[in-house]
């Protein structure tokens, strides 16, 4: 099957959320021993999980994967980040060794970290943690021209879909997503500016922590690259022009997981920019996602607004790697557990008054 056939087939199998399961979850929330609505966003989360999985009450997700997509960016040569490109590889080795923030946070919740080399410049070895699916050795500099070809964009999307299928086949009930790629907040800002229609100056942020001069330069690059996108360009064209290989992998993962009815937890500005890409292919796919957190990057708030998702935690994080997605998993588990395990007014013999 060609990548474009895989994409078409995946899009065709994504459905809207299961309305019957959502209705049953909403009705059950109303008869649990608490004032109606008092568990706030946990209640909404439980209803969404029912809609995604098509089951009420949805299972408490025990087996959780954290899929971290890694790639390099040609735009680093244009001076948009103070960090050398080699840090992408060094951090992937850190993920393999279990020493990064995402590893520590994943151990706290018993989640398995899977790293996917979508297109790092350096060659890394494959093992139980790192899967090598290199589409090309880093993108071209998006400040100068298209980041990749359409064929490469399609191949990388297909790779993300396959990763979702592999994780679903391995029995993962929830997939948290993350990224690693020095320079990737520039590509993310381009995607968010394009898909939200907001100006580059509003969307472009400081990434790893750049000074005012570098921010001005980065913003100009974003504005110029977005202006190059042709009128009426489809999502594959947009990805090829200004995206990254990890963005493609993450968007593919979102589409593949939605087709399999496995909920995906989004991370920060990079993952959310990839979710906008997935939304351009299939608005229904994003309904199968939960927003883990809100990062301090200005573009992230704009992206969440366009995705129509409310972040579960807001802790001034600006890391990526999937850190904010992993931190939200205990809340998602709690939302499902409440719906499944709380007593009803009838069970507990409590007078429900007029509230229920
Ligand atoms: C040591 C280190 C660990 C990281 N983990 C995630 N990122 C984050 O920072 C990068 C994006 O920021 P920019 O666009 O400014 O380069 C991405 O790799 C992202 O995941 C890191 C960055 C560094 C330096
Ligand atoms: O929002 C994020 O995920 C983020 C912000 C800055 C740098 N890396 C990631």
UniProtKB/TrEMBL annotation:
PANTHER family the UniProt entry points to: NICOTINATE-NUCLEOTIDE--DIMETHYLBENZIMIDAZOLE PHOSPHORIBOSYLTRANSFERASE
Species per Swiss-Prot/TrEMBL record: Nocardioides dubius
Catalytic activity: 5,6-dimethylbenzimidazole + nicotinate beta-D-ribonucleotide = alpha-ribazole 5'-phosphate + nicotinate + H(+)
Keywords attached to this entry: Cobalamin biosynthesis, Glycosyltransferase, Transferase
Family as reported in the entry's similarity comment: Belongs to the CobT family.
A Pfam family assignment: DBI_PRT
UniProt pathway annotation: Nucleoside biosynthesis; alpha-ribazole biosynthesis; alpha-ribazole from 5,6-dimethylbenzimidazole: step 1/2
Entry protein name: Nicotinate-nucleotide--dimethylbenzimidazole phosphoribosyltransferase
Enzyme class: transferase
Domain of life: Bacteria
SUPFAM superfamilies: Nicotinate mononucleotide:5,6-dimethylbenzimidazole phosphoribosyltransferase (CobT)
Catalytic site: 321 (proton acceptor)
InterPro entries: Nict_dMeBzImd_PRibTrfase, Nict_dMeBzImd_PRibTrfase_bact, Nict_dMeBzImd_PRibTrfase_N, Nict_dMeBzImd_PRibTrfase_sf
Its EC number(s): 2.4.2.21
Function: Catalyzes the synthesis of alpha-ribazole-5'-phosphate from nicotinate mononucleotide (NAMN) and 5,6-dimethylbenzimidazole (DMB).
């Amino acid at each position: 099957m060609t990548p474009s056939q895989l994409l078409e087939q995946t899009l065709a199998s994504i459905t809207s959320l299961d309305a019957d399961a959502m209705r049953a979850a909403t009705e059950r929330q109303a008869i649990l021993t608490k004032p109606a609505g008092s568990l706030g966003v946990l209640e909404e989360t439980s209803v969404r999980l029912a809609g995604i999985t098509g089951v009420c009450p949805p299972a408490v997700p025990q087996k959780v994967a954290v899929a971290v997509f890694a790639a390099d960016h040609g735009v680093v040569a244009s001076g948009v980040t103070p960090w050398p490109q080699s840090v992408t590889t060094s951090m992937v080795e850190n993920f393999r060794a279990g020493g990064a923030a995402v590893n520590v946070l994943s151990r706290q919740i018993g989640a398995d970290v899977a790293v996917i080399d979508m297109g790092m410049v350096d060659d890394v070895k494959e093992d139980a943690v790192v899967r090598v699916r290199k589409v090309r050795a880093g993108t071209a500099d998006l400040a100068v021209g298209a980041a990749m070809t359409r064929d490469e964009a399609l191949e990388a999307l297909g790779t993300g879909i396959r990763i979702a299928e592999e994780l679903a086949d391995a029995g993962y009930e929830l997939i948290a997503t993350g990224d690693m790629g020095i320079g990737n907040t520039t590509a993310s800002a381009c995607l968010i500016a394009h898909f939200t229609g907001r100006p580059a100056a509003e969307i472009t942020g400081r990434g790893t922590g750049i000074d005012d001069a570098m921010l001005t330069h980065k913003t100009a690059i974003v504005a110029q690259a977005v202006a190059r996108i042709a009128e009426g360009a489809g999502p594959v064209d947009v990805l090829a022009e200004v995206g990254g290989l990890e963005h493609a992998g993450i968007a593919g993962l979102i589409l593949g997981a939605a087709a399999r009815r496995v909920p995906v937890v989004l991370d920060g500005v990079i993952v959310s920019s990839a979710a906008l890409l997935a939304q351009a292919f299939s608005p229904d796919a994003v309904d199968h996602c939960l927003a883990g957190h809100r990062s301090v990057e200005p573009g992230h708030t704009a992206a969440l607004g366009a995705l129509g998702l409310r972040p579960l935690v807001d802790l001034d994080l600006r890391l990526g790697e999937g850190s904010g997605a992993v931190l939200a998993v205990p809340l998602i588990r709690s939302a499902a557990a409440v719906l499944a395990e709380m007593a009803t007014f009838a069970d507990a013999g409590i007078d429900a008054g007029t509230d229920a």
